[in-house]
Structure formats: C-alpha cells, structure tokens
Amino acid sequence: MNIEIPIFKPGTHTAMSGDQRAYSDADLAATAAAYDPALFDAPAVIGHPEHNGPAWGWVESLAIKGGVLSAKLRDLDANFVEMVRAKRFKKISASFYLPDSPANPKPGVFYLRHVGFLGAAAPALKNLPAVNLSESDGALIYEEQMYYHPAANLMQSGQTGPIDHTEKPMTQENDELKNLTKKIAALEAEKAALETQSANYQEQAAAAQTALADRERAARHDSHEAFCDKLVDDGRLLPVARAVAVAALDLIAAQEKPLEFSEGGNTAQLTVDKFKAALSSFPKIVDFGERSADDGKTGKQRAIVNVPQGFDVDPKAAALHDKALAYIEQHPGTEYLTAVAAVERTA
C-alpha cells in the first residue's frame, strides 16, 4: 500500500537535541529533489530507534505539497497500517542528515534519514527488515503534532494516491462543525419545546387545583348551611343568627392551621367539629308545640321562649315574636327581621 503524508514544513524548528535551525522553502525543495531511494532508502519507523529497528515501510519519494514537505510511503506492513487506522500515533517526526555530515548520502542538502511515528509502542513481530541508524551519524530529529490523521484517512478508504493535506482536513472539520451546530440547534429547539410544554402542564395543574379547591369550599359551605338549617328547625338557633353561624363555620374550615383560644387556663384549638358541638349544645330557644284552642285565636300553641333561670320574658316582645312567626307562616320565605318589621307596622 502506498500513501502520501505531510512530514515537515518551513520555518524555525528546534530538534530533540536542542539544536535550533531555520528551514526555508528552498531548503525543503532541495531536500525533496535530492532524495534518491536507490542511494538511501529512508524507512518509516515507530519511535526513534538508536541502532537497529524494524522498518514498517519505506519512503519512495519526497515532494512539496502546499508548501509542506510530503513523503510517499510504500510497502507498509499490514500491522502498522492497522495501528495507524486505530490512531495510535499522536505525533510524526522527520529526521534529516546535516548537509556537512559524513554519513549524508548527498552532502550539501538536508537529506531525509527516517520518518518516525510516535505515541505507541511497536509490537514484537518477526521477519521485519532491520534499519541500522547510528546516533553519531550527524542527523537531527524533529517532532510534529499530528493534529489530523491523513494516513489513517487514506488507509481506511484504501486510497493509494497523494493527499492534499491542507484542504481535506479543513473541509472535514467544517463538515463536523456544521453537523455539530445542527445538533446543538436541534437540542436547543427541543429544550425550548419541553420548557413550553412544562409551563403549559404547570398552568393546567394550577387551574385544576384551584377548581378542586373551589368545589371543596362550595361543598363545605353547603354542608354548613344544612347543619345550621337543622339547628333553626330544632329551635336551637334563631333564623337571624343562621348566616353568622354559617360564615363562622366557613371561616374556621378555611384556616390552614386550627384557631387557638384559651379554655380553663389552657390553650385549645377551635375546629369545625368543636364549633358544631357548641352550637348543637344550645338549649331550644323556641318551642313550636301545639296549645289548646282556648290559648289563642289560631288554635295553635303559642311559642314558648326558653330563658335561663331567674330571667323573665317581656310579654310584648313575646307577642311580637308570635306575630312575626305567624307572618312567616303566611308568607313563606320571609326573613325573620322582615316579618317583625311588617307586623310592627300593622300594630
């Protein structure tokens, strides 16, 4: 398999030995033109072999592509290809013989010594050709960060031609950025829709809770009215006091915490049941029992008003009360005070 990858670019670089040099476009062009695999075949290696190391492939030729020195690799080992596909290498290095090095195959130019792949340990494999590289052969080694993996991209697709390393990675990054932007926009739209839906659900829940509270309040009010109506029918509560008793029951029932009052030096709670018990304990104020005919013109017993011992009832007030009750009987639905006023006007 043959591939082409960028290995070095013009500029000032610092070698692993600390030596700093400037490389011009002309220097790299001379390096590319001088490379001759028949004279010295630069290997593709893993790491920086000191003396003998396996060659995982060979540099067939060098060329300037987009201002960058690129190497075309050939005869790549299948295991090495799989490692590149798996993106095991984070850096790539280029090692050059110095122009004045005695070991330089072509003195006067920076001649490629090897292309190294860094970041993964080489597996122990048999029957791989050895590369004899000496540390004292007057060479410099440079490492470059592999921000993208052109070799991996080519090996995945099986492409064997050269790669434009400046255009394709940028296009790929742009496509990924566009896709990511679309995903973010979709997630934001979904989030906004969920927030709107949640707000609607909360509003509906609040409305349902309010409606339920209104129904419960109305049901309690109806129950209180029925209770007080029975007290009036039993003669334990005057009709004029009915509305006040109902309102008191509604107020007590509406409290989140029971009302408290002092009872015998202790603090007691006022609840609906206690207030109902108090109202039910009242003695009968009015007795509507039958009397003999000679006790009144109507033949009905005159109302008996029960009062505490030691107190008397004003006869005139009792008579007015009797007339008011008779008026109510003749005019059903009339309020007690209205009936009293009516009979007073006719007196």
Task: Note the main attributes of this structure.
single chain; alpha+beta; 3 domains; two-stranded antiparallel ribbon; 8 helices; 15 strands; rod-shaped
Question: What does this 3D model show about the protein?
Answer:
This protein is an alpha+beta fold and 347 residues long. It has 3 domains: 3-163, no CATH class; 167-282; 284-347, no CATH class. The chain is 41% helix and 22% strand. It has 8 helices and 15 strands. It has helices spanning 25-34, 78-85, 150-157, 168-233, 239-254, 272-280, 315-330, 336-346, and strands at 3-8, 11-14, 20-23, 43-46, 52-54, 57-65, 68-74, 91-97, 111-118, 130-132, 139-145, 259-263, 266-270, 286-287, 304-305. A 7-stranded mixed beta sheet has the order 1-7-6-4-9-8-11. A hairpin with a 2-residue loop joins β6 and β7 (68-74). The N and C termini lie far apart (128 Å).
